[in-house]
Structure formats: C-alpha cells, structure tokens
Amino acid sequence: MDYFKEHRLIEGYHCEAIHNSAPNSAVAEYLIERKKYEELRRQKPKNGSSREEQTLALLDRFKVKLTKAISETPEEEPVQTEGEDDQGWLSHVLQFEEQTRKVKDANIQDEDTFEIHDPRNPVNKRRREESKKIMKEKKERR
C-alpha cells in the first residue's frame, strides 16, 4: 500500500477514534479544524498560471467588495457602537491634520533659534586669540 494512503487511513482512524472517545472537546475541535484546512490545501492549485489566475480573481473580488463598501457608506460618520462591524474598515477614509511648515529666518531671533558655537571655526579662533592678548595686557598692567 502507498505510504500516503496508509498514513491517511491511520490519521482518519486516529481522528475518528479521538473524536468519538475524547473527553476533551478542544482536541476534537482541533482535529476537525486541521482536517478542514488539509482539504483546502489539497484543493489549492500548484504553482503556475492557474494559481496566478486564482490570485487575480481574489484581487478582483476584493476590489469589487471595496468599491461596493465605499459607495454604500454615508457621508457622515455614524456613531459607533460597542461591536464594530467587520466591514467598517473598508470605507474608512484616513485623514491627517494639515501640518503647516514654519519657514525660519536666520536673522530673526526667537525661541526656536539656537546659538551655534563651533570652537573650530576660524572666526572664533581669532576672537579667542584677541581676548587672550587683551587679558594678558590687563594682567601686565596690574
């Protein structure tokens, strides 16, 4: 007997045995879900043009569903209840507050202006040299 057929028979027997005698309903529920998804996996087409066609069909279905949800949505936002419907996100419009750009003028001093002091700057070096000379002269005068 083929390995896969044997495995399916054993698995099917195992599934039925656990389902019938399992005191834990979670195990039985898990096995039912597993069987369901294995069937879906077997039905899924292999790589190739048929799979691409299936994907495009799913995309078209989603587009139709989206346009339908947008056309059915009222202009005003309804008051949302506790249980939000699953289709609400399809028609939601994302809106942001408009951010105004603040143009800064380098000549105007305000709270957003920072003083930049770079000790490596040649102008700053000259100022330090001049101030050192002045300080030495003051000390010599005393």
Explained architecture:
With 142 residues, the chain is mainly α. The protein contains four helices and no strands. α1 packs antiparallel against α2. The longest helix has 24 residues. The N and C termini lie far apart (113 Å).
Stretches with pLDDT under 50, minimum 5 residues: none
Helix-residue proportion: 55-70%
How does the major sheet shape up? none
Structural class based on helices, strands and sheet pairing: mainly alpha
Task: State the separation between the terminal residues, measured CA to CA.
Answer: 113 Å
Shape, principal axes of CA atoms: elongated
Number of strands: 0
Please outline what is shown here:
This protein has 142 residues and is mainly alpha-helical.
How do the strands and helices of this protein lay out in sequence?
Layout: H1 3-21, H2 25-43, H3 49-72, H4 122-141
Helix pairs in contact: 1-2
Region (Disordered): 104-142
Biased composition (Basic and acidic residues): 127-142
Offer a few descriptive terms.
single chain, mainly alpha
